[in-house]
Amino acid sequence: MSSVAVLTQESFNEHRSGLVAEQAGDEEAPAYKDAFPPLPEKAASPEGTQEPVNAWTSKIRPLKSSVITQVFHVPLEERKYKDINQFGEGDQAKVCVDIMHKTGAHLELSMAKDQGLSIMVSGKLDAVMKARKEIVSRLQTQASATVAIPKEHHRFVIGKNGEKLQELELKTATKIQIPRPDDPSNHIKISGTKEGLEKAKHEILLISAEQDKRAVERVNIDKVFHPFITGAYNKLVADMMQETGARINVPPPSVNKTEIVITGEKEQVALAVAMIKKIYEGKKNATTIAVEVKKSQHKYVIGPKGNTLQEILEKTGVSVEIPPPDSNSETVILRGEPDRLGQALTEVYAKANSYTVSSVVAPSWLHRFIIGKKGQNLAKITQQMPKVHIEFTEGEDKITLEGPTKDMQMVQSQMEAIVTDLVSRMDYMEISVDPRFHRHLIGKGGANINRIKDLHKVSVRIPPDNEKSHLIRIEGDPQGVQEASKELLELASRMENERTKDLIIEQRFHRAIIGQKGEKIKDVRDKFPEVIINFPDPAAKSDIVQLRGPRNEVEKCSKFMAKMVADMVENGFFLSVPIFKQFHKNIIGKGGANIKKIREETNTRIDLPAENSNSEMIVITGKKENCEAARIRILSIQKELANITEMEVSIPSKLHNSLIGSKGRFVRSIMEECGGVHIHFPTEGSGIDTVTIRGPAEEVEKAKKQLLSLSFRFLLFQLPGSFSNQPPGFFFPSSPAEAAVQENGEANGEMVEEPAAPVDPTAPRKCDVIVLSGRKERCEAAVEALKALVPVTTEVEVPFELHRYIIGQKGSGIRKMMDEFEVNIQVPAPELQSDIISITGLANHLDRAKEGLLERVKELTAEQEDRSLRSFKLTITVDPKYHPKIIGRKGAIITNIRTEHDVNIQFPDKNDDNQDQITITGYEHKATAARDAIQAIVDELEEMISEDITLDARVHARIIGARGKGIRKIMDEFKVDLRFPQPGAADPNQVFVTGRPELVDEAIDHLLNLEEEYVSTLGGRERGSSKGFVVREAPWQTGSEKAPDMSSSEDFPSFGAPVAATNKASPWGPKRF
């Protein structure tokens, strides 16, 4: 008798699953040499025998070539291109080249004697099959035919992901068109060669014939008898499915359906239906009794996830029917054999009374002390009695206990002892404090309230802001409660006397008040320690400085800071004095004596430019009168050192910018040419005509002449070209008395004096009169030219609500118009609510500016009307349960609707009262179209049904796929929604399919096919204990060798690991290293 060696499951667990299937109980174990054939090398064994050489090589199959060659013949009558003269050229050749590029196969064409076309195709199998399909469709005339098979068989022709259909088309070289699921037709259209048509029809009919063998049967049985059919824990229905091979889908208790669905082969389905009906016939006359059980005890009869009901059914064979939770009925119905009803009733009452509910009186404010920090106090009880549930209800002076009757008495006595102890040594007090002081009582980061809690060992509850409650609750030791309440009331009383005041201080002064590193504000805070001073964040650009503290101290601090600001404003005046660079050192004096003396005597700050700077400006800062005094002192020093004079020249202010030139080009040229004189123009927009020239007397006079000459030149530049030869003389007033100056800038030295006469208030002032002299016609033309240079104003009426759009963001709109039309546009202040906009400029510019403004008004009016049209709103009422479906995955569906119809779609917020209202905003016709699109989705969703099926839980993971890829593909393909059971569900095999009726049926069939496919791959493996991998005639059993040690690195070496050499004989045979 041969000996048998056993390798245990623990040692060969992984190898067993991958190498060989589990052997049947009575099957003979393989021999060791059969299971582990020796290596092919010839090697002498220790006994001198030789191992078989080809034990491994005999099983190696020769490799086949991956390149194949096939020849296709196209008869003359079926050829598309029959022009024999163009063989190898023309369209036929182009098609062949295109097929080779597209498929990667090699084509060779030849002409047969019967003018048929022979095509030899070489390449890989897949490429050859694709080339064959292309040849048939593009080089051979096509025929078509239809084949009719039942609509429900179409999906089997298509196959998983269309793979079956693609295989058929390649195999038969045809094009197969299957009607869409929503098409009622059952005809499949085939186009291709005659031979291919016959093959395709044959294959399709074979597929349909196979499906005809399957059947679906629906049996209606009252819901109350379903437990007898499923059996306890679904064991009976599982046994029936295993015995018959059919799939039996029984609706779960939560679904109010009576239909049981059986699918599978016809014989299997018929057998399963017969077994179900037999069970029903045996139970339909079962006896029933009704008993009253308190509603609160129903959950104990049901048990966790319905396990107690299943347990009673398993023990007694009696079904227990519990009324639904939303029903007020307390009647429990027992259904079964008469002799088993008594035992079942006993079980029901035992389960109902196995748990008791009681309560312990405890003031609600003590609840958190009973629970303890992080539940420590309760943990001691629940660890001893884990089945007892302790419930605290906020606002109620009781604690509810629920648990097994035997444990309840001990838990209740422990809870009562805890409550009694806490009541004897704890107290509470409620004090009333205005809610606006609550955050001050809490303090920054809870500093104040935490200090009081730690000091007095109490708990303080301050209500949140949204409650607007005055009551603050203090709980803890009686003495601590009294002391904490006293301290809190004192703080609140002190805060009631507090005042908050906002000071308006320009932000530019904030840094000066704070001082370098906060030194100045520190002095203020030290002077008023009870006042809190808060400056706004610089980024906020706010002028409000907040003071908070006792009323009197806040007033004093406010006056002090107001005085500081007033001093800063008064001392903030500054002026710039131009002093020639060479005199700066004289103004500074030896060791800074002069500048120091001026600073002290005038109480000003005087800043001189750096030595390496080109600036000649000295800046004086302080009170206005002090700055003027310092300026006079500095100028006097310069006059003493040089022959400096100052002269004022009157030049129309409108010419000042032209005289200054771009970046000061003209005026700087004059100053440099005239020995560095200083020329000072008044501030732009001031309307002052006086220009001041300072410097050496002769240089000042020279600069004056150049300025006047340049100003006349700029003025005459505006006049007609005919005056360039004989210009008239212009006489501009340089002071209240007129100075006559000719156009070329030379003074004639004559003063025009008017005889004394009464002053007419309506007559123009002499300083406003320009006198022209010259030939009459020239002077008249010059007058017209000068008048054209005088700006005029016109008014345009523009609706007030459009003003802000005309001005634009930060004035960009109105600036653009002023630059474009060379005018000034004045928009009235908002508080005036005026519709009149003034345009000022040259007469020839006003018409264009007015036209441009009116055009802009027309554009804005059109935009306003468009905005009004776009703001049309409508609402649609949609059940909230459909909202996620309308939104779609990652918002895909709703985004598509918004983009397609150019509308805004708003769903209700979580806290919104109208949860079913969806708001659509946009053009009326587009909003209506979007509403119709949403309604179409809702209508489709309302047509959907939900079916539940039983799928073996073992295949759920494979159907779902990695990261849900598989289930998403099924849902996208069949347009349905799938819901798999959660872990720990009562029925782990139950799957819900939701969608349109016809799509749900197709999806269910697909899922059942997948289940059948996946279950078959499991091969019915046993998952129980195993004896391991068994072999006969192992070396360690037939000889004196020891069995290999599985923990030894020598007997079982790792790849790449060094193995120490040894002379010990191995059970595996001689070692070759």
TrEMBL record:
<dbReference type="GO" id="GO:0008203">
    <property type="term" value="P:cholesterol metabolic process"/>
</dbReference>
<feature type="region of interest" description="Disordered">
    <location>
        <begin position="15"/>
        <end position="51"/>
    </location>
</feature>
<keyword id="KW-0007">Acetylation</keyword>
<dbReference type="InterPro" id="IPR004087">
    <property type="entry name" value="KH_dom"/>
</dbReference>
<feature type="domain" description="K Homology">
    <location>
        <begin position="943"/>
        <end position="1012"/>
    </location>
</feature>
<dbReference type="Pfam" id="PF24668">
    <property type="entry name" value="KH_Vigilin"/>
</dbReference>
<comment type="function">
    <text>Appears to play a role in cell sterol metabolism. It may function to protect cells from over-accumulation of cholesterol.</text>
</comment>
<feature type="domain" description="K Homology">
    <location>
        <begin position="141"/>
        <end position="209"/>
    </location>
</feature>
<keyword id="KW-0443">Lipid metabolism</keyword>
<feature type="domain" description="K Homology">
    <location>
        <begin position="571"/>
        <end position="639"/>
    </location>
</feature>
<feature type="domain" description="K Homology">
    <location>
        <begin position="870"/>
        <end position="939"/>
    </location>
</feature>
<dbReference type="InterPro" id="IPR004088">
    <property type="entry name" value="KH_dom_type_1"/>
</dbReference>
<feature type="domain" description="K Homology">
    <location>
        <begin position="497"/>
        <end position="566"/>
    </location>
</feature>
<feature type="region of interest" description="Disordered">
    <location>
        <begin position="1032"/>
        <end position="1073"/>
    </location>
</feature>
<keyword id="KW-0963">Cytoplasm</keyword>
<feature type="domain" description="K Homology">
    <location>
        <begin position="425"/>
        <end position="493"/>
    </location>
</feature>
<dbReference type="InterPro" id="IPR036612">
    <property type="entry name" value="KH_dom_type_1_sf"/>
</dbReference>
<keyword id="KW-0677">Repeat</keyword>
<dbReference type="GO" id="GO:0005634">
    <property type="term" value="C:nucleus"/>
</dbReference>
<feature type="domain" description="K Homology">
    <location>
        <begin position="354"/>
        <end position="420"/>
    </location>
</feature>
<dbReference type="GO" id="GO:0005737">
    <property type="term" value="C:cytoplasm"/>
</dbReference>
<dbReference type="Pfam" id="PF00013">
    <property type="entry name" value="KH_1"/>
</dbReference>
<dbReference type="InterPro" id="IPR057778">
    <property type="entry name" value="KH_Vigilin_N"/>
</dbReference>
<dbReference type="GO" id="GO:0006869">
    <property type="term" value="P:lipid transport"/>
</dbReference>
<feature type="domain" description="K Homology">
    <location>
        <begin position="643"/>
        <end position="712"/>
    </location>
</feature>
<feature type="domain" description="K Homology">
    <location>
        <begin position="790"/>
        <end position="858"/>
    </location>
</feature>
<keyword id="KW-0753">Steroid metabolism</keyword>
<keyword id="KW-0597">Phosphoprotein</keyword>
<keyword id="KW-0539">Nucleus</keyword>
<keyword id="KW-0445">Lipid transport</keyword>
<feature type="domain" description="K Homology">
    <location>
        <begin position="213"/>
        <end position="281"/>
    </location>
</feature>
<keyword id="KW-0153">Cholesterol metabolism</keyword>
<keyword id="KW-0813">Transport</keyword>
<keyword id="KW-1207">Sterol metabolism</keyword>
<protein>
    <recommendedName>
        <fullName>Vigilin</fullName>
    </recommendedName>
</protein>
<dbReference type="GO" id="GO:0003729">
    <property type="term" value="F:mRNA binding"/>
</dbReference>
<keyword id="KW-0694">RNA-binding</keyword>
<feature type="domain" description="K Homology">
    <location>
        <begin position="285"/>
        <end position="353"/>
    </location>
</feature>
<dbReference type="GO" id="GO:0034364">
    <property type="term" value="C:high-density lipoprotein particle"/>
</dbReference>
<keyword id="KW-0345">HDL</keyword>
